[in-house]
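Run folding on both entries below.
>entry_1
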Amino acid sequence: MDFRQLLYFVTAVEEGSISAAARKLFLSQPPVTAQIKALEEELGCTLLVRGARAVRMTEEGRLLYDRAKAMLALRESAAEEIAGRVRSGGG
């Protein structure tokens, strides 16, 4: 599991479809699909039920979505904090 996979998953949930997530991420659909599928394989469960035009989360998907949002926010916060220290000469 890596941050890229989590970002693709969160974006697919928030955009409502994998193709919309790909557009938002400035990617084609196959890499987004492949990374979400790899995440599902690693975790051993289905995270998203794919419909004709939309995705919906499974119970496991809901759990991961909440955790992934927190992890991505912590990553962003840490990067900002470190960048601030570097800019101020504290690093």
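>entry_2
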Amino acid sequence: MDITDYVIELPFLKYDKQTLIDYMKGKGPWISEGYANRYLRPKEDIDLFSDIYRQIPEFEINIGRIFFAELEPLQFLNPHKDLYRKASINIPLIGDFTKTPVTFYSEKSTKKEHILYKHHYNDVATVINTEVYHGVVNTTNEIRYIFCLSVYPDWNTIKQVYEKYNGV
């Protein structure tokens, strides 16, 4: 398999990282849905979010499909496949992403022989294939925050859309 079977960086996607962080810090409540991490789901569709959606209209992103995710220090988000979405555009906000990669597995196991790929987020939006088992270990002493936009087209369609916008 190729790296683009797991992740695709989206350098053309424009957003104001600090404005996302400021919005996140000023809102609540954060909720837990049975995972190791907590979520903040925005209720209002401000221009900041709409400006991001409009850049990739094929993904049909909307306010009901976005959230901020928090992973506490020394926590493990177990390998899983997402239930209702095919992919997630993740924007790294706060944390040491060199030490908290998203890891893809061949099955629901953390054994080294099941690791397919580890992706360390750069300071760029990245779409991840959530139909492959994936998880995160936060081995740092700081909370890790990302902004997530849920995507529903199949992975091949996502690759085609990427090629369209990235000029491949």
